[in-house]
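Support case: user asked for a sample of complex input and structure output to validate their parser. Sending the pair below.
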Amino acid sequence: MAGSNRLLTILAHAILIIGVIVVLFPIWVAFVASTHPGETFLSGELSLWPGNQMIENYSLILGKGMKIASAPPLWVMLLNSLIMAMGIAIGKIFISLLSAFAIVYFNFRFRMTAFWMIFITLMLPVEVRILPTYEVTANLGLLNSYPGLILPLIASATATFLFRQVFMTIPDELTEASRIDGAGPIKFFFDILMPLSRTNIAALFVILFIYGWNQYLWPLLITTEDRYATIVMGIKRMVEVADSIPQWHMVMATAILALIPPLFVVISMQKLFVRGLTETEK
Amino acid sequence: MRTKRVTFRHPWLPYLLVLPQLIITVVFFIWPASQALYQSVLQQDPFGLKVTFVGMDNFIELFHDPLYLASFKTTVIFASATAFLSLSLALLLAVVADSVVKGKGFYQGVMIWPYAVAPAVAGVLWWFMFNPTVGIMAYVIDQTGYKWNHFLNGTDAMILITISAAWKQISYNFLFFLAGLQAIPKSLIEAAAIDAAGPIKRFWTIIFPLLSPTTFFLLVVNIVFAFFETFAIVHATTAGGPGQDTTILVYKVWRDAFEALDLGGSAAQSVILMIIVIAMTVIQFRYIERKVEY
């Protein structure tokens, strides 16, 4: 019995290690490719070990960009991605906190109407209303601008529902006590609700940052100028070039740079990430 | 939908609080969606000079268009293959990870990596590995005698985008399966072990049935993902090709609007996609209601 148990444990770890390899292999291969000179890919030689061109490749693509693909320096795209991701995460949290507060703590006319209008956004991802949303954004003069990148993506029913749930668990006694002490709704919001929802806000922030950083279709549609290009959408034209001219080391360096920030967030805030993921799916 | 027992009273503050979200919702969601509905019953000539009301013609035309029907079929194949591949791999890994004592944290820590990677980047990583001339996977496959080429072979291209999408979804599925497994009372599994049921029998008779709510929920989530969030994978890699072989619905709606400039047809496709999302959301919410009752 003990012997077969031991065998099972070894088998279990073997399966898990294969799983780990499957998950990490594409990232490893991309990293390796990004450290070799471009000629490596001409000879069709395959290596699974990093080369010696890492610093050259990364400093070239970060500082000068990829000329053949007429791509701007990558630090510009990284910065745009950061602005977009932060804008979306903060914007979504901000407007959702406010509307959840109104829906939970006030009895006002059109309360249910407001709730349903927010609910409906769940059913309309950008992919299904793509052309008219683009037209609206163009008519507002928001093409090639940060508000254009951010605003259409910050309405979120999930975030509003999450905060609604959080607020519903906060005991009424706290509200009564602060009202007796003469606190108005705004003071209550900042002094009681905000501190009590801090962890939920942080968990949601992690999820929304990744969501914002990884956007592809929307920035692709509304940015035609390089100075607003984000890194995730920018990778496409480099791939197109790489299919004819061997520039794979540059493309893979871009891919690695595009995945490091969200990966860093996930790894360094693993607990909050897992919490945010399981909470937003309720 | 209740409020708190204790509420605040204010003549205008609640309206001001919901206003930002409502403005965004009306401007960027409800208005565009109604425009899509409206345009789906119109026909515009290519120069945008004349617009005529055509009723359901755009929809009828779509369902007689072999390219659209093919795209529908492609999407269904892609979504089911992605969901099946990702769910079964994640389930296997979660069950095994749940059984080990040492290293659980490490395995979970690594399994969540793909979630951070953008779909477009995930697609490009696999696109590179399968590249017929420089890709390591293509090289390995070539050794078996099969000439891999996703530029020419539609099945190869479909396998490629399926693997990319499934890889990306492993994190999510793994986390939810692991949480589901941890919620199963250990006494049940121990009782079965005492009755001398082996690990495989224990899995199929106890664990798998008890996990079925989680599996069903994840199935819906994975299908929604494959239907609506994989535009980037297709656009950044196969561009719908070769031919039409990987033209999934969300890719076609984009191409017909922005490249073929078929506004009515694209709007009709948008409306059909909306109906699919609404159906999926309803299924998801009914499931959650049941979960609350338990």
